[in-house]
Design goal:
Blueprint: H1 3-31, E1 33-34, E2 46-47, H2 51-69, H3 76-94, H4 99-115, E3 124-125, E4 128-129, H5 134-154, H6 160-179, H7 188-204, H8 213-234, H9 239-245, H10 247-262, H11 275-283, H12 287-310, H13 315-332
Antiparallel strand pairs: 1-2, 3-4
Helix pairs in contact: 1-2, 1-7, 2-7, 2-8, 3-4, 3-8, 4-5, 4-8, 5-8, 5-10, 6-7, 6-8, 6-12, 7-8, 9-12, 9-13, 10-13, 12-13
Length: about 350
Amino acid sequence: MPFLLSIAGFSGVFALAFGLTGVVRRYAQRRLLDIPNARSSHRLPTPRGGGLAIVVAFLAGDVYWRCVVGEPVAGFAILAGGVLVAAVGFWDDHGHLPARWRLLAHLAAAALAVMTMPGDMPLRLGFVSFGSGGFADFVGVLVIAWMLNLFNFMDGIDGLAGLEVVCVAAGASFLLLLSLPLGIFPPLAPGLLAVAALGFLIWNWPPAKIFMGDVGSGFVGYLLGCEAIATAKAGTLSLTVWLILAGVFVVDASFTLARRMAGGERWYQAHRSHAYQHAARLLGGHAPVDHRVLALNLLWLLPLAGLAAWKPAWELPLLILAYLPLLYLAIRLRAGQPEL
């Protein structure tokens, strides 16, 4: 792949995401204002739906790579599923869509992606193998649907979801680059997603000028889930490595959900009891939380994910090691419990 064409492509995707976010913001100021309420973590009316710029920039990047470089970023089925997820999110941003219809669309998109992915390596989590047949595909659909909703749950303070996309996607690209033989270019989707999210993140960094919205949070979570399953099926990056990379979101969302369900709360309703939301109140702002999440990703999770990719036999112990301090923080910050 010509180096200069690649640089031009990534630069173009970044510029397009950045510019389109500004355009979407002008539209959203009239049609998609997020008005603060008792469950919000922001105080001022803020436009939402900026994640649409990530969607368009990523799809434009795929067109560029197909037409100019001659190499697709992702399969048509995965892209079609992403468009479906984004469309449902865009609809929900404009007006409430019943949860059952959102979930049905998410599962349909995930199933479409998994059933058309190449590769026959067994899907495994540490020492546990799900095989490579129908049960593995079922697990893959659940992983993608969970990752999709994970980013929806965790998109609650300025900069957090965009930052996590950049960290996880860029980290995966880096590990893929290291794991593949010299001269073989890694899958493009994670790197392209990281660049598109970075263009949006400039607008979303505290204090946010626009929110990602369901159109963006669903799309990025879906793509990361697809890449996790696709690289696992291809044998290039295991599911465990992805779970380590996304550990901040996986632990906070899962622990909070489990505690709310155990407490008999309506877990599907919006709330302000995630660990990151408690942390934002404790630290007096959103930026301090983002800085700490960035440090956790770069200094803790990425090195452990790299070690897990290098030594597959150590995957499960490394996953447990990666999650222990995150679980401690979730407990210490009272994740899943109402604010005092």
